[in-house]
Amino acid sequence: MLSEKTIAIIKSTVPVLEIHGEAITRRFYKLLFTNHPELLNVFNHANQLQGRQQAALANAVYAAAVHIDHLEAILPAVKQIAHKHRSLGIKPESYPIVGENLLAAIQDVLGDSATEEILQAWGEAYGVIAAAFIGVESDLYQESAQQTGGWSDYRAFLIDRKVQESDVITSFYLAPQDGKAIASFEPGQYVSVRMNIPGEPYTHIRQYSLSDAPGKPYYRISVKREDGQGTVPAGKLSVYLHEKMQEGDIVWLSAPAGDFTLKQNDERPVVLISGGVGLTPMISMLNTLVESECPRHITFIHAAQNGTVHAMKEHVDSLCKAYPMLSVHYCYEKPTSEDIESSTFAKEGYIDSAWLKTVIPTTDANFYFCGPQPFMKTVHHALRSMNVAASDAHYEFFGPAGSLED
């Protein structure tokens, strides 16, 4: 429990963190990887290069400072990050290392403004926050290992099938090498894939949403090949999976994780909205609803550049024909001549609130959306303009969490 004095000191640093937060987290990661290069085996290097991880951490530190007197307000964010930590294999012994380097970064960036009193207060606060993470993650590790078919850390899986879904997305059907049962999962969850790529000095770990319904003897992930452009680097693991990994090869998986999950007991309609490869958790949710013969009305909305990169379209179209309670709507940014000729999409350009209002039958529903951040901002603002309750709007970022409010 933090003292009133410590809480007051932490709150006094909020304006400083608002200005210098990302400078502190940039310095933090530089110190962390210099002092502990082994942690480069865990962190996503592309997110580091793009500054996404630094921004996400800065936002988390700022939120912790703002809510330091009622940390229960950030518990949902703690749980979300804890799921990712469990899937990555983060253990309690990492927290003192992080704390030490975070305090050093605060001192380096703020200089004389980081008094001994401020550093001591942040040291105490970090201890409380770290304890919360460790506690939540301990429960998640235990739950993961003890469930039927579950395991701790990583487990070997064979690529049973490799199926090209579009010009940029390939599905990998992954079966356990030991032939034993695998853990079930909630539609919307993901697994971490760990690989050692020849010629790369560090292990690469990436999270990929499970793209089929639970209850199968395999997990399926559907991976977009990230070739990179401009200042955005190529995705080393996605490119390696596409180019080098073949049926029969081994990948290492964490047990399923994540709190972006379908509310299966809610009887109201469901609206699934995706952009690009953000459709992968939506397909898992859609397949689950259809396979369970759920009587709920489902609206499936997907945005893609055009038909050549639109994955799983035939599958969704076949479900639409067989399931009367499902309506499907596609939006293509730049449709090809073939798309136009075959009239396979409902809207040209970008998803916007005016169009969404015409295809969403009711706002008294559970909404799930996922895709690139600009897409998610558009959907977020559209749903808010339609007076969709915040508690009914569920979303997940691919990679570090960002903001949908700008």
From TrEMBL:
Residues noted as binding heme b in the record, renumbered to the chain: H85
Residues the UniProt record annotates as site (Involved in heme-bound ligand stabilization and O-O bond activation): Y29
Region (Reductase): 149-406
Free-text cofactor note: Binds 1 heme b (iron(II)-protoporphyrin IX) group per subunit. Binds 1 FAD per subunit.
UniProt KW keywords: Detoxification, FAD, Flavoprotein, Heme, Iron, Metal-binding, NAD, NADP, Oxidoreductase, Oxygen transport, Transport
GO MF annotations in UniProt: FAD binding; heme binding; metal ion binding; nitric oxide dioxygenase NAD(P)H activity; oxygen binding; oxygen carrier activity
Superkingdom, taxonomy of origin: Bacteria
EC number: 1.14.12.17
Domain Globin: 1-138
Binding site for NADP(+): G276, V277, G278, L279, T280, P281
Positions that bind FAD: Y190, R206, Q207, Y208, S209, F397, F398, G399, P400
Broad EC category: oxidoreductase
Domain FAD-binding FR-type: 152-263
Entry coiled-coil feature ranges: none
Active site: Y95 (charge relay system), E137 (charge relay system)
Pfam family membership, one: NAD_binding_1
InterPro entries cross-referenced by the UniProt entry: Cbr1-like_FAD-bd_dom (IPR008333), FAD-bd_FR_type (IPR017927), Flavoprot_Pyr_Nucl_cyt_Rdtase (IPR001709), FNR_nucleotide-bd (IPR039261), Globin (IPR000971), Globin-like_sf (IPR009050), Globin/Proto (IPR012292), Hmp (IPR023950)
Catalytic activity: 2 nitric oxide + NADPH + 2 O2 = 2 nitrate + NADP(+) + H(+); 2 nitric oxide + NADH + 2 O2 = 2 nitrate + NAD(+) + H(+)
GO biological process annotation, one example: cellular response to nitrosative stress
Sequence similarity: In the C-terminal section; belongs to the flavoprotein pyridine nucleotide cytochrome reductase family.
Domains as described in the record: Consists of two distinct domains; an N-terminal heme-containing oxygen-binding domain and a C-terminal reductase domain with binding sites for FAD and NAD(P)H.
Protein name (database record): Flavohemoprotein
Annotated organism of origin: Paenibacillus lutrae
Recorded name of the encoding gene: hmpA
